[in-house]
Design goal:
The protein is an alpha+beta fold. The chain contains five helices and ten strands, in the order αααββααββββββββ. A five-stranded mixed beta sheet has the order 1-3-10-5-8. A hairpin with a 5-residue loop joins β6 and β7. α1 packs parallel to α5. The chain is globular and about 60 Å long.
Length: 219
């Protein structure tokens, strides 16, 4: 009976992770929003040393990366600034998040559930989402130009490595500022609805004295 209960707990927890990771396909949630949730959940899991949060964040991160095709947009320009030595940053991959989750699991059944979740492959992709990893040097900016459709929700997520403060600016083709995220972190999210189809400039500004390796997602 004890073994049966442990097995059922493992299945239930693993299933919960899968539901979290796959639910966005049913609700129409974009890979950008899933990535944002994964980043937020990972930080809460790290702070609380919570294995369930960490494992769920890892599953969401895997799903978002699988859903987003490699970016079809190219960097328009980059103010290179001054590259400097620095730490490797605090951003964790899905594999590292799973490893952290297992470290805090505390029970064999939960650890087994995390192992099952770790080996669950992503299923399906969200069309249109794009992903690119880049590096912005200290006290400099990266610029991208990307077309968004009028009347539809546009989303941009930037998730840095944790070493510096990044700011996000979105401009329309006339240079008007349409969205910003200027908090003191390097996880930034912008969501807006263009009136007309057109090109928008995405600026990622590094306010720190060392470079920052970031992921940029768009829908």
């Amino acid at each position: 009976m004890k073994f049966f209960k442990s097995a059922m707990l493992s299945i239930a927890v693993a299933t919960s992770f899968s539901v979290l990771a796959d639910d966005h396909k049913k609700s129409g949630t974009s890979a950008v929003e899933v990535s944002y949730l994964a980043s937020s959940l990972a930080q809460m899991g790290i702070d609380a040393k919570n294995p369930v949060m960490l494992a769920a964040a890892a599953m969401l991160k895997q799903q978002a990366e699988a859903a987003a095709e490699e970016a079809k947009f190219e960097m328009e320009s980059s103010d290179q600034g001054t590259p400097k030595n620095k730490s490797t940053g605090t951003r964790l991959s899905a594999e590292q998040l799973f490893s952290e989750a297992q470290k805090y699991a505390g029970s064999q059944s939960l650890s087994q559930a995390i192992e099952v979740a770790m080996n669950t492959k992503s299923r399906g992709a969200v069309g249109g989402s794009k992903h690119k990893e880049e590096r912005v040097n200290s006290n400099s900016s990266d610029l991208y130009r990307l077309e968004f459709r009028g009347g539809e929700t546009a989303q941009v997520l930037v998730d840095g490595d944790g070493d510096t403060d990044l700011d996000l600016y979105i401009y329309d083709e006339n240079g008007n500022e349409v969205c910003t995220d200027l908090d003191i972190t390097d996880t930034m999210y912008c969501k807006w609805r263009p009136r007309l189809t057109g090109n928008f400039v995405i600026e990622i500004k590094n306010l720190g004295d060392v470079y920052n390796v970031y992921d940029i997602y768009t829908n």
